[in-house]
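Q: I have 526 residues here and want to know how they pack in 3D. Can you give me a structure?
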Amino acid sequence: MSAAAAPGRRDVVVIGSGHNSLVAACYLARAGLDVEVVETDRVLGGAVSTVQRWPGYQVDRGSSAHIMVRHTGIVEQLRLDECGLTYLDMDPWGFAPFGPPDAQQAITFHVDLERTCASIAAVCGQRDADAYRDFATDWGTRNEAVFAAFQDAPSAGRLGRHLWGAGRATDVGGLEMSRQFLQPADQLLDELFHDERLKTALSWLGAQSGPPGHQVATADLVGWNALMHTRPPGRPVGGSGALTRALAERLRRTGGTIRLGDGAAAITRRGDRVTGVLTESEQHVAARAVVAGCHVLTTLELLGDEALLARGRRAVRVGNGIGMALRLATTDLPRYPAAEADPAYDPWSAMQLLAASRTHLRAAHGEYVAGRPPTEPPVLLMSFSAMDPSIAPPGRHNLTAWAQWYPYELTTGEHWDDIGAREADRIIAAVDRVAPGFSSSIEHLHVQTPLDLERELGLRRGNIMHVEMGLDTMFAYRPLPELSGYRTPVRGLYLTGASTHPGGGVFGASGRTVARIVTVERRKWR
């Protein structure tokens, strides 16, 4: 316990053990504060966690590929390698195979830009390869500035300064720069490239944040992927949960504590000042400050402020789910004809981008908007047991198939408990179309529908990003303008997690930023 904390009272209680919460807790403990994390689940890590689903299989519950956190420096600053975290580089990081009649061809996205351009040239021609090189260089430079804006509390001034710097670096004027950022991703792709197969792969990759490429202000959801040519995505040895396990170990070594299976039942306050957390076992953990890493609406419910909660329920755009996941135990890897024909193709470390065309992407999203599961779902397949044999028994493989777009609330009159298996079969069939025979290799299957994601991980309405990732819900609008700076109207109550800037994904920036704010503001607690 730090000298500033009274007997029996913590400096900070952190609600939730997701990666942003644990990042915040680690930085706060490193600053000398007495920190306790309270978590409802008996499994550490929230959506960045791994469990033994079947004997010998270490299966992710949520995220699998770690992209943004590798660009933040958090892993290095907290010396998580000393706490058991080892990353394997995903190189190549993207593999886009084609169906008939082009099944012998694919595009491979390597960390090395020239190797990527060579792969594009072999399939799409030199013109598109040269255009991709220019795109990756230009948008990579821009996104170094955007990424800097993600590392601090959001404000129009900060964002403007970073984008102004990006414009200077790329010789693009302010109005033209803003136009390019505000355009749909598909418009950007149509301006730059000719081959529809390349445009499909990039559009599907960009859509992983949720919004489809035909919507306004999605251009940078494609553009920021250029950063993967400077630092590849990573796969933690032992599963995605190795990150949160390492964070928990760093917190323990720094003097913090974690309480599993006894999460927050209420946030307590005296007037406009937070006083701590009442846990589900009815223990009151008194604290000078509370950092809530759960969903913003869950935080407001725990707080019990009816006016603020009513505002949140009206205005926070949670959406209607994004997708669903299959966790697969198989006897073999998916066998793509392109990879079988040419050993130069190495898809197993990559995110495998299985989308037939942008027309199919738009059709899938249209069905989602109408409240129906997609007839032909686009799939992102990951086969990390090929890189890390520790997550599957010898001779077996552990794969994840993520598919979009799946509505949490259905207009068909059906219930997810009744149709989950049917929709899983459709996803497997989509893999079979580009990797014939894949379905016959499946021995075990765990289905996570949007409803299952809510039940298992507390992801409201199945939205893995907590809040929609549209233009009106990002930066100083996330989750609401009055809550966008990680602070709340209640003194000493702070927010972190996917509900806050910069949003969802395995990032950690929100946790580090709120820890910095709390550390600076602790003198006000008295």
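Q: Anything worth noting?
A: The first helix runs from residue 19 to 30. Residues 9-47+239-317+467-524 form a domain with the FAD/NAD(P)-binding domain fold (CATH 3.50.50.60).
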